[in-house]
Every structure is written in structure tokens, then in C-alpha cells.
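Q: Got a minute? One more chain.
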Amino acid sequence: MRKVTAGLFYSVDGVVESPNLWQFDSFDEELGAGMHQMMVRVETGLLGRVGYEQWASYWPSAADDADFGEFINKLPKFVASRTLSGELEWQNSRLMDAPLEEFVAGLREGDGGEIAVFASISLTRQLLFAGLLDTLMLMVHPVIAGSGRKLFEGGDPVTRLELQDSERTSKGNMILSYGVRPGA
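A: Always. Here it is, folded:
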């Protein structure tokens, strides 16, 4: 069975939205190495509509991070959307042809490397609470963002997580990898 992972830049106050506004000065070599390790394991990407539209307008011509740009452009990507239709313009991108949970459950049963959620708070939440997310990696930056969308909200179901790995980086980030605890 294939693993489904999600990794999010995360402020100390829980903000995950628009990390480009608050994480730039604490991004370090260890975070870069962690992203590289992820890139070699991932063979399929999942995006929501908003993340797809943002990334599709940026990554095909981005020159500032050639390694990630090459990786994400070549990667097969599936997009969950209720409003997009037809062929998608970004190379190797297709709309999911079934509801998210059903589609991802089917992908998990197939052969191949890891499946990663990119640029989507909503998809990450939905897959986590549906029991379809195997690893949630939070890259906690030493910053209070102050505003922006958070990953967890009041009223979320109690969900037990198990710490799989942790690392402190040279600039004070914490890379925390969690799995959903069996039976939780």
C-alpha cells in the first residue's frame, strides 16, 4: 500500500497559510535537505483547486528553485476541484475523476512511491480526518505569524497522533513527523 503524506510550514501560533510571508528568514539547509528527501520518495502529487491555480501560474517558469521546479513540473499531479473542468494546462496535471476520499483510497491501493499533498490545507484536513493520511509533517518555524488560516480549528474531532520523527534545525525550526495512531 502506498503512503500518503502532507508537509506544511507551520508557525508557533498554528498558521499554515501563506508561509512565504513569515518563514523566509528561518529556512535553512536542514529544511532544504528534508524537502530533498521527500522529493526522492514522492511519485504522485495531490492539490486542491486554489493550490493548483497558484502553483500552475508560478512553477512552470520559476527560476529561483530549479530543483523543486523540475521535480514538481514532472510529477504526476491530481487536482481536487468542484469548479475546474476539462484539460488542465500545467504539465502532468489531471482532475480527480472521483470524490477525494474514494480517489485517494484507490491510489493508495496501487503500486508506486509516496503520494504527497501539496499546497492544500483543506485536502490535508480532509484526508487526516478520513484516516487516509499516513504522515503529517509540520515544519514549525520560530515565528508567531499573527494571522492567517490555521490547520486545526475548534470543533475538529479528537485525533490521536504518534510522533514518528523529530529534528531541530540550525535556525531553530522543528521538523515533526506524525502518524495517525492505530485505533485512534
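A: Residues 4-180 form a domain with the Dihydrofolate Reductase, subunit A fold (CATH 3.40.430.10).
Q: Perfect, thanks.
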